[in-house]
């Protein structure tokens, strides 16, 4: 009878994350396939909540908020449990791999490495924006930008990619003097005009899906006024072009699926993670595609049949043991 018991998969993620996923459907499909999904409380003894055959968690926000004692305790509890279960438990997407994706400087550097891993024929199709890191206050940042060949317009972001309100504060700047209004450290990344379309790429291992979404407008050569915004709140009207309609966006072709799959595969291999999302745009000036953001375990909104796809991934990881 013991062999007929469902295998237990412990999971941890924020309530807001769970709310964005069709979790009830995922749970039902998993149970029908012999897996019980069990919520794990990182503030309690994890061993007492087990035993588990596998653990899946998303702790990028907790890792970022390392100065918060509560989050520190959660991470310490998780790491201690994982250490005690080595050889007994499958760690689906290890915490050590998730650490690599929580700061934008690391992500930007990683994207350069990923481009170099692509087949030679594809490297000409991909060029992610140049960027500079401003870490120390200066009277003029022009030399720092020139050293990295960063040109305006540029998008300004905090180094921290998630986990705080500040990580979503951004700006489009057109001249050096506007950079002084932002708190350091900063990532200053070239802004590519992309005809107001961003391609959300959702990957579950080798399965890749492209979902197009409206994005920010093309910026004019003669613009000078800095535009600040919070990416988690309604964006200011100055970031949109009302004359650029749905039909205009529809005329922009998706990036080639083969190219997207190569990028997804290189990202997954470099990061050691299987549940990935990244944003691509097509540079209207050059026609090249650019990866402008990467995140772990995205929302997968618009991905066909995601619950089945996700459960199949869990089963694959279980069966690899």
UniProtKB/TrEMBL annotation:
It comes from Acanthamoeba castellanii (strain ATCC 30010 / Neff). Kinase that can phosphorylate various inositol polyphosphate such as Ins(3,4,5,6)P4 or Ins(1,3,4)P3. Belongs to the ITPK1 family. This is Inositol-tetrakisphosphate 1-kinase. 1D-myo-inositol 1,3,4-trisphosphate binds at residues 17, 58, 168, 200, 295, 299. SUPFAM superfamilies: Glutathione synthetase ATP-binding domain-like (SSF56059). Pfam families: Ins134_P3_kin (PF05770), Ins134_P3_kin_N (PF17927). Residues 118-320 form the ATP-grasp domain. Its EC number is 2.7.1.134.
